[in-house]
Amino acid sequence: xxxxxxxxxxxxxxxxxxxxxxxxxxxxxxxxxxxxxxxxxxxxxxxxxxxxxxxxxxxxxxxxxxxxxxxxxxxxxxxxxxxxxxxxxxxxxxxxxxxxxxxxxxxxxxxxxxxxxxxxxxxxxxxxxxxxxxxxxxxxxxxxxxxxxxxxxxxxxxxxxxxxxxxxxxxxxxxxxxxxxxxxxxxxxxxxxxxxxxxxxxxxxxxxxxxxxxxxxxxxxxxxxxxxxxxxxxxxxxxxxxxxxxxxxxxxxxxxxxxxxxxxxxxxxxxxxxxxxxxxxxxxxxxxxxxxxxxxxxxxxxxxxxxxxxxxxxxxxxxxxxxxxxxxxxxxxxxxxxxxxxxxxxxxxxxxxxxxxxxxxxxxxxxxxxxxxxxxxxxxxxxxxxxxxxxxxxxxxxxxxxxxxxxxxxxxxxxxxxxxxxxxxxxxxxxxxxxxxxxxxxxxxxxxxxxxxxxxxxxxxxxxxxxxxxxxxxxxxxxxxxxxxxxxxxxxxxxxxxxxxxxxxxxxxxxxxxxxxxxxxxxxxxxxxxxxxxxxxxxxxxxxxxxxxxxxxxxxxxxxxxxxxxxxxxxxxxxxxxxxxxxxxxxxxxxxxxxxxxxxxxxxxxxxxxxxxxxxxxxxxxxxxxxxxxxxxxxxxxxxxxxxxxxxxxxxxxxxxxxxxxxxxxxxxxxxxxxxxx
Length: 678
Prior knowledge:
single chain; alpha/beta; 22 helices; 21 strands; 8-stranded mixed β-sheet
């Protein structure tokens, strides 16, 4: 079966290409709509031509793909809140001074040490109607007066844009939020907010109340806290309260997917419901009853899980699988996956750039495509061998499909993933069944003690198993440098290798040979690119100074004594090293003068001592030196001033004013992020 011969495959690929073009090229609304109108007119014209002349079929196909491409471009634009004139992003004054802001709490996020965090929906700013999602940070207090989803809150405060990453090669939280159409945050204390007596009672409110009821009934049954938090993650998708140690164990063992409610969990539920409905005969009426029961069960699970994006996309995907089975089209699973993907992206195009979405569909695609081929290698005889072999083949197929993407995003690989999946799948199967029963009971009353104990002990056993596997840290390969060239060339190699192994014809061998060449070229080009790079970085490290110089792979870092052994330095430097394929030399203590690429760099620290005859190109100020910057600028005539985050905010503002008088650029890392000199 040639998957690429399906018209739906080409239509979906063109639609996805349109979304990608729109995301990176950012065309205007008028340009996108003009292109869509042109594509529609061309499509209609070609349609009528084909009716009278069948030889024009190929042109009609091109017209179909063109309209798919233009639709993808427009769909992303129409789902970008930035273009909505009523969005709060267009209220510039709200970012400059305090305004009375009214918003509705939509979703509870993971709290930090200082604040309870939520996603809120803006309704009004100074009684003017606005819209859009924001992150709400409400300072914790000792009073037990919890807020609930659906609360309408008013507070006088200033909206704050989420700052971009301040150091190189770090996760860009600002970009992550903007892909979720969140462009700002607000910070306030609980005493400053006014909570309306009216509650917005929509489906999100009822999901929140359902969660609260389940949690209250489980706590009254004396559920152990650690196991309860894992149970809420497994069944309800609520990871907010899981400890960092448990999350680390799941990462190191290759079982992170277990904590995120996704296709694995929804698949278990679908199989469980299908097992319960097995006595119903496979007549036309019986098959319809089964389908309706499965769809209702999946929709109910989505509601119980809080309608999170990962759950919704998995429910949509498996709903189409169930419909395909009902229509006796289960053999064409590729169509089912494509239809579900197309439908999801039509309503939520930004899911395409969500890591979970990418990993879910890649894992499922490779399980469907590759697992049957791996399974043919060996045919076991007894049931235990069959189970182990099935678990291994599924695990390897999914891991092969997601490996390049995991290396690209996370730069690590758990070597014992196959052991983890073999061991935990039976435990997880039982946990999912027991968990659903316990959660359904907890909606109404506190579950029976014996059920809670069985559920709790099974989760304890799961955590213990995961912890044991994760304890073999030598099998966790971390800090793997991996760029986009490697990503695409490795996928090209994997896909061409599978295609050639399934059908050993000459053209497939040529594609496989080309994939090997492309991987080699990506390695050579990356090496050449790294060798030719030379740069100096002044990092943004709070209350400390950190500078690195780079010549190809070799990276030297300079720091004060207080940071040479700190975890902050390790985290920041590791991100830079991994992102740039770097090798770190021995640390050096910061000197007052540096020379880099023909540039003279003077560093003035807390001593305030400097040589007035040096005439540096760059002046770096650290540790809040007590100097008269006007006099220093007159003596030294630097071309640019760089102030790192070790300086106090007040002094930096004074320095900025001094630089403005003399038209000298001033770069504060706390405000603009790291400074880079090439």
